[in-house]
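Sequence only, no structure available. Ideas?
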Amino acid sequence: MTKDKIHSYLKDIVFAIVAYIVLSSILFSENLFQQFGGIFHHLMVILIAILIAKSISLYNIRSQVSILLSHDKTIPPKIRKPLSIFIENDLLRIGDLNKSLLGPKGIIIDELELDKFVAACFEANGKCGYIGTDSNTPTEFYRLYSTYLDNQLKLNKKWLFWASISRHIRFLFVSYDELKINYNSGKANKLMFQRFCDWHVQNDVQLLQVDKDIAKQLAQSRNMRSTDIGVFGWRFVVFYTPITQPNGPNRYQINMEPMNDDIMGRLREYLKLLNDEARELRLRNGHIQCIERNTQAKNDDLKERIMW
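Reply:
I predicted one. Tokens follow.
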């Protein structure tokens, strides 16, 4: 049994005890159930506490329940049963996908599904910070993740008056020579490269560069599933592994882990080491610059954008 499950069970137990104490105090004070005797009184309080706990669970998934109920009302009675069975089987399949997503094999999804998944992650992340790492050149990043930055920017617009996207940071695992080759490989590549760098500057997202071999070694030493990750508010982390196909559509292996002491400890070590190795990536007047940062700049990024 994982620590998260233990914490979940403990939370339910604590809630049930608190609910029992509160309800018992209320019912004793008003003498509403004296006619049932002591034992029946306690049984009634326990039953009410359980009902409240279940009601709260339903409230937490109210949007999903509402969607299912609204669909059910629109289905003609004669075909309601087969469609209900179909939907139930589909929900079971979704449950299996959720288990796979949290497991070592992850799930394989296409680009459209990835877009929806990333949008959901940023929406759930709300006004919290974000840390991203990627092992692709800017133009390859756009080819693989064409809507990723748009989804990240939507977060900033939604929480404009409450939070700043400046708590975000991205590490790019590409060597200086690879960046130069990518930038100088035609006009289209130059424009995409410029667009990528400008986006980070305009939205005050720190863009850092680390050589791929160093990042890979650090990821392996901390037992990371992939070098390419997204840390959402230190609440959960997503691991991205693109599956390249010469003539086929983009597909991706996605793994997801909720934060616990183990993964958080390994991630913090990994990101701290990356921050120590990283240089600031800038494109100025058509020249790529990987600028060494002083100790103060590294400490500022570590405090404000990574270990907040």
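The chain has twelve helices and nine strands.
Hope that gets you unstuck.
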